[in-house]
Amino acid sequence: MSYTKKTCEEFVEVLASKAPTPGGGGASALTGAIGVALGNMVGSLTVGKKKYAEVEEEIKAMMEASAKLQADLLELVQKDAECFEPLAAAYGMPKETDEQKAEKERVLEQATKDACEVPFEIMEKCCQGIDLCGEFAEKGSVMATSDAGAGAIFCKAALQAASLNVYINTKSLKDREYAQQANEKSDAMLKEYMAKADAIIDAVFAALK
User: Which one of 30, 40, 54, 194 has the fewest CB atoms closer than 10 angstroms to its CB?
Assistant: First the structure.
């Protein structure tokens, strides 16, 4: 099932249901894609305007990067759902004998580690989205400044939401060294890019008021 091919109504409906996917990860990826698209909208409203001729080529390059990032995040909506399937299957494995218990624990541990990878990808893409929204806010049309700010808000929310999927998975890992490294990687992205997003958002509010 391709979740990105659904209508907005269908996606939200299945998101609200008891179906295991899509969940927070897929919603984070979609939110990030929306944030990046809002930044790209600023570019679309800037290109071709005489006032911004000096930065037009730079804006076009930013738009190209945004389009790629937007596509990547939409792919991660689906990828997040797919990576959950092995984890769900691992929880359903039998554990009647010692051998079965050991095998279930091994498979579950690996599936949980694998389930951390997509949220990390989403976080990394959202960080890139925040950077781009900041550039669009700084260099793009002043008539669309609010869209750049909104894009940064969406990317920030998606970044923070995706991190929750990392933490819920690392919490259950037996390999605490791996868990600590994963948590530290997530912590570092949050520390740097939550602050970056806030600075962009504050600057946009200041420009609009």
Answer: 54
The span from the CA of 198 to the CA of 201, in Å, is: 5
Q: Amino acid identity, residue 57?
A: E
pLDDT of residue 4: 83
Question: For 142-162, what is each residue's pLDDT tens digit?
Answer: 999 999 999 999 999 999 999
Question: Do 43 and 66 meet the contact criterion of CB atoms below 8 Å apart?
Answer: yes
Give the C-alpha separation, 136 to 114, whole Å.
34
3-state helix, strand, coil in the chain (%, to 5): 85, 0, 15
Q: Which residue has the tokens 């808000």?
A: 153
Domain ranges of the chain: 21-208
Q: Which residue has the tokens 């989205």?
A: 129
Q: Which pLDDT belongs to residue 117?
A: 93
What CATH number belongs to 21-208? 1.20.120.680
Cis peptide before 22 (omega within 30 of 0): yes
C-alpha–C-alpha distance, residues 178 and 78, integer Å: 25
Full-model pTM: 0.93
